């Protein structure tokens, strides 16, 4: 064999074969296929909310929803669209960092903005009267009120969000969410739903009866950082690729699979810590203030099931 061929063979060894489960996958779902219905649904929700808000802010209305709450609700809808309907969603299958951005948008950023918009009354008033009447019958039923009360208990909210976070980052379930369109939507829906549950005791602390319980929201936020810190630290400091499916993905933005994993973990670590710290600071400032803002406390007291029932009944009367 010529010397130059021998040197060439030594300089460029044969690339090892990837495990079949690590090779590139053909994804049945794509952001371009779902962006139109997703955008349409979010636009309809925004229009219904604005229609109801315009009725709430009438001079003869007993209830007021400030303009800043409208902005908060619409911004929350925009973040949902960014996560599941925008071009950012297309990177979910090639970059773990993009997946982490979607997770943060659906679970950590959009839910508190939606809840700060106090969406129940504007959405109900914005719907046609027949639908509002059906909602009234539904929410006035005792089982629904009890279910709402149970689901919004702080322990259930914390366990639900923590369970969704941990479960969907187990490698087998993670890959299942990438391979299956149905499971992909279940994953996204569970992130958003548990995000709403998690942020309920934080955004609506006055639904908890005692002053001590309101201070316990700070402990609630601190405990919520622990599973996020453990998962993100594992991603940052692990010296192997946790999700081998990304080994077969093209290197985007010049990141290797390990560097992408470290970036995703660092992003989660930083964002969750900062957001929870900001929330805790705002809650502390509100609790230490001599007088709580009336705008903050509007329709936030009382058990969730009872307040929903009362809201629906009053809105049916208004409609």
Helical content class: over 70%
N-to-C series of helices and strands: HHHHHHHHHHHHHH
Major pleated sheet: none
SS strand fraction: under 5%
From the alpha carbons, calculate the radius of gyration and give it in angstroms.
24 Å
Structural class estimated from helices and strands: mainly alpha
Low-confidence segments, given as residue ranges, are: 1-24, 26-32, 293-309
> Which geometry do the CA atoms define?
globular
How many individual β-strands? Answer: 0
For the record, give the distance between the C-alpha atoms at the N and C termini, rounded to a whole number: 90 Å
Number of helices: 14
Mean pLDDT: 78
User: How many structural domains?
Assistant: 1
For this structure, the quaternary state is: single chain
Short description:
With 319 residues, this protein is mostly helical. The protein has 14 helices and no strands.
């Amino acid at each position: 064999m010529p010397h130059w061929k021998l040197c060439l063979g030594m300089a460029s060894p044969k690339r090892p074969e990837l495990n079949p489960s690590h090779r590139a996958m053909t994804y049945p779902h794509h952001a371009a296929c779902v962006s139109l219905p997703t955008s349409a649904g979010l636009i309809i929700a925004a229009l219904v909310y604005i229609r109801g808000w315009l009725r709430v802010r009438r001079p003869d209305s007993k209830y007021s929803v400030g303009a800043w709450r409208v902005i908060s609700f619409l911004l929350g809808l925009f973040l949902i669209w960014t996560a599941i309907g925008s071009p950012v969603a297309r990177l979910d299958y090639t970059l773990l960092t993009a997946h982490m951005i979607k997770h943060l948008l659906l679970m950590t950023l959009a839910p508190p903005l939606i809840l700060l918009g106090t969406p129940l009354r504007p959405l109900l008033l914005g719907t046609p009267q027949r639908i509002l009447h059906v909602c009234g019958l539904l929410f006035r039923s005792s089982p629904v009120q009890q279910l709402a009360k149970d689901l919004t208990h702080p322990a259930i909210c914390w366990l639900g969000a923590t369970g969704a976070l941990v479960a969907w980052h187990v490698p087998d379930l993670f890959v299942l969410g990438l391979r299956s369109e149905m499971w992909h939507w279940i994953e996204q829906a569970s992130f958003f739903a548990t995000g709403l549950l998690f942020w309920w005791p934080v955004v609506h602390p006055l639904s908890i009866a005692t002053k001590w319980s309101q201070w316990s929201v700070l402990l609630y936020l601190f405990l919520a950082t622990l599973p996020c810190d453990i998962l993100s630290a594992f991603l940052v400091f692990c010296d192997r690729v946790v999700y081998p499916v990304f080994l077969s993905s093209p290197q985007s933005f010049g990141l290797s699979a390990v560097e992408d994993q470290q970036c995703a973990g660092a992003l989660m670590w930083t964002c969750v810590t900062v957001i929870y710290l900001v929330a805790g600071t705002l809650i502390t400032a509100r609790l230490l203030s001599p007088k709580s803002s009336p705008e903050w406390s509007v329709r936030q007291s009382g058990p969730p099931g009872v307040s929903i029932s009362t809201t629906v009944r009053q809105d049916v009367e208004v409609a």
